[in-house]
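Exercise 7.
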Amino acid sequence: MNWDQIEGKWDQAKGKIKEKWGQLTDDDLTVIRGKRDQLAGKIQERYGYTKERAEDELKAWERDTRW
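Solution. The predicted structure, written as tokens, is:
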């Protein structure tokens, strides 16, 4: 699924994102509002990941997520 589709289905995507990255809060996801770069940054911040690891995990999630 490409990011435009995820952004368009953001309310549905939030639940799947919280399943994967449970340390993200509802407030985090409300502020992010579908912006991929902000999501990657918040994953990096909450989990202490490097930028590269956060990007790798996000890419894998995008590839593997089924709607």
